[in-house]
Structures are given as structure tokens and as C-alpha cells.
């Protein structure tokens, strides 16, 4: 028999718990857990990141996990059913990691391609974002795990993120940035919401009564708990009164004893504290009903791998396929160019990063289809020196040894020795046993170069670090430090050094590190990471021109050439924004040269957000593959060789150059604030209003088959039409419905996405597709009426396969004007 859990009697606790006990409940117990009250049968509930999987409780040396495609990759599926399956997988992973609260999904809007965390979110469009978020929340919560959509709201860039003031009109706030949360609440009823770091129109989001009380609870009827982002609580009484239930992480900085003191001084009403406590207890009671593992465990199953492969392959967007270059058939040999082919670019950086069960690289995926593969790295395309893991082949690999004394101390005693997967570590939620407030570490390993030549190394840290190669100091990131965006904004820039290494000789490297308290940097707006971290990278120096010439010669000698390129978690990460849309290093020069040598070469891009493609007009085949999770290599190969017919559609507009995007002049923070000057004209709304042609439009994506849309019928409440696969392959098409008023006295977008449906059909097969329209389809936010207004009049309905490929149009009439609030 299952053991019956003791009942949590909320009313009894509110009547009998002490002020201190109640105050402690309103903050985390530690980095990942709520505060328990054992005397009242209130357990401690575990929370866990992240948007593309469940990390568990450790950033450092964590338990491996399933890694889904990044948020934009999931968004590119446009498939609510598949995304709900992804949510079920996340729910099961959470339970295996002992977590009953999932800190996701990320639902912020990609107003610019440069946002550091843009890859975590689904889309630039609020309707697509909201509907996909609802699907993944439904999946997660069907497993009994609480979902926590984030970050509420307008946390759309990383620069000065912990205090940046976002200035946005009420209309844009409602129609673009709050709308995904509104739709997700209406469709899926999440049981928690995470607040954002930033200010919104002068008020910090985590202590805004307008957001947390008037809109979220009163207007939308939200009955769940509100949780701060980590270190995103900034006050005691003000945040409690505003409606923030839980300060995370613990131990508390603003609550606990401070909150008790505020109540004792009559600066905070007890009834308000009780309201917050009730919300926390209801969350804990709900989460405690979820059966989770006692220990963080692994559940890498064949069924999960199948779902992960489907997610990755259906996220892939075929951007170009001139002359039907793809799929490849009867391919005996392939030339592969680019270091990305051997890199495991499975996720972005920051809190999205986790330790995967496994990763199939693109090269490994190709090898499952064709054995004769010639490889050429081409010119490097990294922004930071690559991690040393792939170069360390001598047992026991890379070791991190912790001490209480610096390396200059004789006979120091090791506290703990840990074998790590690669040459970086972050001690966000970890402290070695017996460590003092200031402690140290040595990261060590061995390199045996395959060629004689110069190696370049790079070190960045939160703390201090010295790199030694064979006991010779190569990099000093200790005595004079420069501030950078690493380690959630608390770290240094990458300091560089070089040394000549000889072929076949084994060299030991040793990074001597002091924890975050040894840092000489004084940083405002950085996330508090008292224990710090370090990152060591390095690789052989190559001559870019010679490397490109080598790639060109291969391209001339091989019929089938594929170029792998893109970004990685060093470029797209929480903590800092991208500085440009360009591919790094000499990548564009490499692609140009290879395409000149072999115009049939395929370009595969892995990135979470758009990159500039100055060579796009000459490329015949281009694939956008995102950060594909565990199965990224198999998914890419499945599409290239035709096992999978690509069906992904862009969830955001790809501009030709960064200057074309609507937030270009208003993205960077100025004097502590950012103005959303593009207003409601985010993404495709801007490009269409300005009649500016993008590189690739919102909703765009090609297939290996063809589809026909016909027999459109529309009313004010639904859309139905016939979709037929007119080609020779099984395939899926995304039917997209856009709506716009024929006439309005209010400035409106040219059209807006209001419904979509993904349809999978065999060759020649046809089906009737039905999609519903509700009052959201005709409404805009009126600032004068402080309400949604659905105007009477005629509305155009545009149905197509992307925002710029409209196939069918018709109209319907709205008979009366309606003014409304709520969901």
C-alpha cells in the first residue's frame, strides 16, 4: 500500500503558526527548495530549471538530463500536440529529479534578434507564444508537476537586467507582452508564475500591485503562487503588499526576520502576510501530491529518445531548396566543412544549460547514413576559445580539486576532488564540504597535441584565476581584472594567452582559482553568485586563409558538400546580449568561398535567433537547425537524407541586417532604461507596416512536398478549409490564419496571427481543417477605455502558409462593438 501523506491543514496553520514561521514560509529554504514546517506537515518542495529540460539541483557536476530543443526550436514546430508531448516528458523528468515545480516555460517576446535569452522563448508573436506555452504547461501539469511561466513581464534583454526600466505603452504591454501570459492562463491554468527582474514603467515587476494584483489576480483570476526570479526580490513590505508570494532563493535576504520585524512594527498588516502564506501553502499542498523521486535520477528511455528526435527534426526549418537540392539520395560520399559538425551545440547558455544524457553531433548523425565522409574544419567560428574537453584524452580527464587555502600555501589539504565533463564550472548552488567563505580550486588535466604549433588559451572567471601550462604562467586573470558579461553578469572578460606546444608531447594545464569573494570587480546589476566559477578554453592556432583554401579544395573535389555553422552557448546566453547578428570570426568568408567553389553546397545553421546571411542569394539550400537538444545530429541528418520531410516554420522574422529590425534604435539600455519605441509593431507587424522585405518572413518554411489550400469558409467564430498534399511525399503543413479590420480609426497592424493548425498528410491525401476564432481575433487594447475593444465592422481573414504567402482571403462582419476585460 502507498503511504498516506499527512494532511496540510491550511486554515489550522494560519491560525496557529507563529509570525516567524509564517515569515520563513514566504522565502526559499535554500537555492531550490521551499521552506518546510515539519510541525504542521508542510514539506519542502523542490523547484528546478530550465526551459529546455530539468537540470535538477546542481549547476556544477549535475545529474544528466533529457535536453529538448531550445524555445525557438520548439516554437518552430507550430505543433501544439507535439509540444504537449514535450511537456509530458519534462514533467516525467522533473519527477525523476525530485522536483515538483518546473521553472518554465520562458514566454518573453523576441523584440530584437540580439536578446541574449531570445533562444529560450517561443516566438516574436504573442498568439503563437501563448498557445505553445499553454500546450507545454498542460503537458507538464498532467504529470502533477507545477509549471511556472516566466518572466512576468518585459524581461526581453540582458543588459542591466536586474534593474533596467522598461518603458512601454499600455497598448503594447497588453497586445504584445502580456498577451502570451493571458492566453496561457486562459488555456492551461498554470499554478505558479515567476516575476521578472526589471522595472516596468517605473515600478519593479516583483513589487508591482498593478501587475500582480490588478491584472494577474483580479482581472485574470489567477489563483496560483507568484515566485520571484532568483535574487529578484528587492523589498520586504512593498513586495508582500504588491502580491509576491515567495522570495527565491533562500535563505531570505528580504523576508524571514526582516518581514517579522515589519509586522511587529505595524509596517505590514498581518492579514496581508496571511494572504501570501495561504497562497504558498496551497502551492505546497498541490505540489506535495506529486510523487517525485527521493533522489535525483536518470530516465533515458527509448520512448523519450523518440520524442526528442521528433521534436528536433520537426523544429528544423528548410529556408532554401533551389533546384530541389535536398533531400540527398544515393549518396556514397560527403564532404563536411565546419567545426560545428563535431560540436555538441545542444542548448544555449545560462540557466538553460544542463548536462545532457548524451548528444548526437551532426557528424555522428551523418555517419549513420553514409560512411565515406571527408572532413575539413575550415576557419574557426568561435567567439570564446573552445572548451578543452575534446582535447583531453588522458585518464582521468579534467579534475577540479577544492581547498580552503590558495595554491601558494604549502601542504594544503584537499576538501573534495571532482571529475568534470569539461573545462568550466559554475558554483551557483554548490559549496564543497568544509569550505570556508573564501575557498579555492585547482582545475587540472593533460593535453597531447597532434601537431606542433601555437595554442591560444582563454580564461574568464567570477573570482580570480591563473593559468599554468607545465607550471609556466600563461594567463593572469587575477591581479588586473576587466568586467565582462560572464557568469550571469558577475564575471570577467576572457583574458587570452598563448604557448607553443610540440606534437606528441604531453602537457599539464592547471587553473588556480579563487572563489567569487576574491574577485576584484565591483559590479552593479549582476546576479549574486557568491561562490563563482571559471571557464578555460583553448585550441591550436590556425591560419584562416589557409583553412579556407583547404575547404575550397574539398568543395571542388566532392559532389555533396555540407557546411555546418552557427552560434553556441558562449554567444547566446543569459547574462549578456549579442553585439551583432553576424556569424563569428571568418565564417561568412568561408561560406562565400565554398559556395563559389561548389554552388550546390548545403548550409546548416545552428542558432537560437537569426543570423545575418550575406551569402543567402548564392546558396541553393539553407537549413535552420536551432539548438536541437540530445538528438540534434540525428534530426539534421534525417532531414538532409529525406527520412523526415521538414515541416518547421520560422517563429520569428529573420531580417537581412540588424539595422532592419524594429527595435534597432531602442534596444540598448540608456541611463538605466529602455524605450519600446516600436510600440505594437514587433516582428512581422513592423516589416509589413513598413513594407520592408526581410531575409525570411515570420511563419516561413519549405517542404519536400507541395500543398493546396481551398474552400475557405469563415465566420466570426471559426475558420474551415480543405488542405491537400499535392506532392509525392508524406508531409506536414502549417495553416496560418491572420486577421485585420477593413477599416479602423485606430492604427492597427496590416494583419495579425490569430489561429494556426499543423496538418500531416500522405501523398494526395486531403482533409478539412477547422480552427476557432474568439474575441481576441478582433480586439485591440484601448488606452482611453482601459479595456479590450472588439470593434464592429468588416474583418479580412488571410489564410496561408506563412505571413508573406497568403493563399486564400475572405471577410466576415462583426455586428456589434464589445468592450471587455479578463481572459
From TrEMBL:
- Pathway assigned to this chain's UniProt record: Glycan metabolism; cellulose degradation
Q: Which residues form the PA14 domain?
A: 393-552
Q: What class of enzyme is it?
A: hydrolase
Question: A Gene Ontology molecular-function term?
Answer: beta-glucosidase activity
SUPFAM superfamilies annotated for this entry?
Answer: (Trans)glycosidases, Anthrax protective antigen, Beta-D-glucan exohydrolase, C-terminal domain
- In short, the EC number is 3.2.1.21
Keyword Aminoacyl-tRNA synthetase recorded: no
Q: Which GO terms describe its biological process?
A: cellulose catabolic process
UniProt keyword annotations, A-Z: Carbohydrate metabolism, Cellulose degradation, Glycoprotein, Glycosidase, Hydrolase, Polysaccharide degradation
Q: Which PROSITE patterns match?
A: PA14 (PS51820)
- Pfam families assigned to the protein according to its UniProt record, in alphabetical order: Fn3-like, Glyco_hydro_3, Glyco_hydro_3_C, PA14
Keyword Ribosomal protein attributed: no
What domain of life is recorded for the organism? Eukaryota
What reaction does this catalyse? Answer: Hydrolysis of terminal, non-reducing beta-D-glucosyl residues with release of beta-D-glucose
Protein family according to the UniProt entry: Belongs to the glycosyl hydrolase 3 family.
What is the protein name for this chain? Probable beta-glucosidase I
